[in-house]
Specification:
heterodimer, A: three-stranded mixed beta sheet, 12 helices, B: mainly alpha
């Protein structure tokens, strides 16, 4: 009890000094969420005993040596570096009022990625890093921009790149019923069957990672978010520059099971991203990567 | 066949957009330009592989219809997935054609967590398409 009291007092003090972010950092993980994380990660560790925790971030490429060689070959000369550089430039260019994106966030740019999605207690909802960037623009008198691809994805990719090696730490604050409800909703979205093909996220990415759907190897859900936004060959071929955020990917998955994609940056996907990212807590951000 | 009778440009465009935008449960059995194309391609392949079962094989192989190869190995079928069991010795495994049809129509009856899409219950395929696929699969 004593330690809990001290933590609360400390959290309150930091809260006064450092604002919301410090307060969130001091917040403790809800024990039921931590139990979920442990069970989730142990399931994958048992299923693939030869893989280390961080190996799971390589998705389908962690499942076969042949695929891994292809991946390594592409990553030797990443086809997306120019766009990440553009993202950096955009991130560092001040708004017309002279302020920068960084001014909206406390703490180092380098670790921004690791704490998102984050519970925003003032708004009473989950906030993704992409949404926080858009909010920052609006707060500084700039226009909203799309959250699926393009400029926002490049900036987000830049933030993922500089966070390489930093450890994911998404928190569902202990004793916060609203935050826990959002997390539980995300969990439900993950495990519920949807669409004409009647498939849940978990059906493929928990029950069958490493197996193939036609020629495509299914990735494990653990570590799926360590490298987003990704540059996909498929997206580059279709239209656009190849970059997409995790929520763009959710939309693609939903379409593939013939379900109606949810709206990006609304509760359903934000809560899903909250759950999905928390499950990879403790893993390192692996930087922006190529995917098929 | 439904698919072939709907050829009006406006109507098939409407159908496509309806398939994307409507809640999927109310979507009609597959019919659209992309679906026609996928079926034609698969049927052409099947003319060589299974000449006596072209229609059933075509519907089974088409990526936008049965897409059985998505998860199951089928003799002569290219690039099969391996999430489901290989479709071999089907008459031994399903002596009754009716039971096999029920499995294709809705596999979640026997196993609620089955990955297999309930093709009949969710109207992903029409009843006659399911019949043709059942006939073909039963010969494997």
């Amino acid at each position: 009890m004593k330690t809990t009291k001290t933590t609360i007092v400390l959290a309150a003090l930091f809260g006064l000094v450092g604002g919301m972010t410090t307060n969130a950092l001091a917040a403790q993980q809800d024990p039921s969420v931590q139990a979920d994380i442990n069970a989730f990660q142990n399931y994958f560790k048992n299923k693939f005993q030869h893989l280390s925790l961080n190996d799971f971030s390589k998705g389908p490429y962690a499942m076969s040596e042949d695929k891994r060689l292809q991946f390594d070959a592409i990553m030797e000369f990443p086809p997306f570096e120019d766009l990440v550089d553009k993202g950096e430039e955009l991130w560092k260019t001040p708004f017309r009022n002279g302020k920068t994106y960084s001014s909206c966030f406390s703490g180092s740019d380098k670790t921004l990625r690791t704490a998102y999605p984050k519970w925003n207690s003032a708004k009473g909802k989950v906030e993704t890093l992409e949404q926080a960037i858009v909010n920052c623009r609006v707060k500084n008198g700039e226009k909203k921009i799309g959250t699926g691809k393009g400029k926002l994805a490049w900036m987000s990719a830049y933030l993922t790149g500089i966070a390489t090696g930093e450890v994911i730490n998404v928190i569902v604050p202990k004793g916060n019923a609203k935050a826990l409800a959002a997390y539980e909703q995300g969990k439900k979205e993950f495990y519920a069957k949807r669409g004409q093909l009647n498939l849940s996220c978990a059906n493929c990415h928990v029950d069958n990672p490493g197996q193939r759907i036609r020629g495509n190897t299914l990735s494990p859900a653990l570590g799926q978010i360590t490298h987003f936004p990704v540059w996909r060959g498929k997206w580059a071929k279709k239209k656009g520059d190849g970059f997409g955020t995790i929520q763009r990917r959710y939309g693609g998955c939903n379409k593939q099971v013939r379900a109606k994609p949810r709206k990006r940056q609304k509760a359903a996907y934000n809560n899903l991203e909250y759950f999905h990212t928390a499950m990879s807590n403790g893993m390192e951000i692996s930087g922006t990567e190529y995917r098929e | 066949m439904i698919i072939k009778s709907i050829k009006g440009k406006g109507f098939s465009a409407f159908l496509l957009s309806a398939m994307v935008s409507l809640a999927i449960f109310s979507a009609p059995a597959i019919a659209g330009k992309k679906d026609d194309k996928a079926l034609k391609k698969a049927t052409k392949t099947c003319q060589k592989l299974y000449p006596s079962m072209t229609q059933g094989c075509g519907l089974s192989f088409s990526r936008r219809h049965g897409n059985c190869l998505g998860c199951h190995q089928i003799q002569k079928g290219a690039q099969p997935g391996n999430v489901g069991p290989p479709l071999i010795a089907m008459k031994a495994r399903f002596p009754s054609r009716a039971v096999l049809r029920e499995q294709i129509w809705d596999a979640t009856v026997k196993n609620p967590n089955s990955l297999m899409p309930p093709f009949g219950r969710h109207q992903a395929l029409s009843e006659s398409q399911i019949d043709k696929i059942t006939d073909f699969i039963h010969t494997l």
